[in-house]
Amino acid sequence: MKRTTIDFWVGLFALMGAAALLFLALKVSNQGALPASSTYTLTANFENIGGLKVRAPVKSAGVVVGRVTAIELDTERYMARVTMALDEQYRFSRDSSAEILTSGLLGEQYVGIASGADDKTLGSGDSFKITSSAIVLEQIISRFLFSKAAGDDNTTMEK
Amino acid sequence: MGNRFVRLCQSIGAPLTARIIKLGFACRFLLGILRHSPAAFARPQLLAREIWFAGVLSILIITVSGLFVGMVLALQGYDTLQRFGASSSLGILVALSLVRELGPVVGALLFASRAGSAITAEIGLMKATEQLSAMEMMAVNPMARVIAPKFWGGVISMPLLAAMFSATGIFGGYLIGVPLLGLDEGSFWSQMQGAVDFRLDVMNGVIKSVFFGCAIALIAAFEGYDAPPTAEGISTATTRTVVTSALVVLALDFVLTAFMFRGV
Lengths: 159, 264
Fold this sequence. Notes:
The complex is a heterodimer of chains A (159) and B (264).
Chain A: H1 3-28, E1 39-46, E2 57-60, E3 63-74, E4 79-87, E5 97-102, E6 109-114, E7 130-132, H2 137-158
Parallel strand pairs in A: 2-6, 5-7
Antiparallel strand pairs in A: 1-4, 2-3, 3-4, 5-6
Chain B: H1 2-35, H2 37-41, H3 44-54, H4 59-81, H5 90-128, H6 131-137, H7 142-180, H8 185-195, H9 198-226, H10 231-260
């Protein structure tokens, strides 16, 4: 086999490999988290985060605006402190509220932000004043069962 | 009685020591390859020939197998997913299983049988016909001239071939999923993009295939170098290359998967 023929095929091989990798990178996968340079951080304290995980999306009106970067327990108040990295281009008013929502009935959990009406916006390092916790299915079911049981007792007593 | 005990110990110990000696020789062999690697990289012409030999000649089997594996995955996955009404997630299933596991592993198994056996046979035959000794007589180090380029040719080819396997597999899955089974093209690609992470899934697959490439190239070159210089010796060495590579690839895959995907 001539030297140039081998070089041609090896070059083509490298090109095909690079094309396959590029296809996997651009068409098949996402690039993960937002680029670190254009984000700012916000924190929110929740009574219960349910099944929220690091790298979960932060959404406002359904649009992904950032990612959860850290979750830790605040040992002074025994609340969960969730740190998020938000895209620089999205700013939220100071009276915005953060809540933990579930996509679908059994889907992954994410942080939803509902914007308020204040003119001033939250800056880097600020925290949300108004938060509401994740819905824990067991608590709802047990509350429902207890109220049902109590209700049954009342009806029998009335009878 | 005592004599029999001694013979029992010998029959257990002898194969064990032989294996350990072989492993030690393989380690020394790897160090030798690494020491002579700069010389191999200094002559890209040799390296290009080995990449052609190991990589380019394997393109056909890799891409055709990838296409069929992807198509089978799509058919089988659709059959199960549609029972749960989740057939639109077919893209995720095909892409994740190919990029994480099947691309590197099945690609490596095919590479071991296509290129690994060829490397073993070539080195073994060179040794049997005393070409390696002739090189040494001419003050050419066969380690730098023959073995190190073959090793690196295999290591460089493997990740590229695994990426091609995954890419053609996903294309095969697309061919079955969208035109044949009538899934929505937009949701096929967008769900796939949403679920597959470049760093976590694609790069881990590439890292796996680099490990597999190193293992296969080392085993193939070593078995060829270690083969008894007879026709039978070369045939045994070629078989051993394929069997050992397959076992090592699957065992390595388990270890690497345990490191990479711990279900966090």
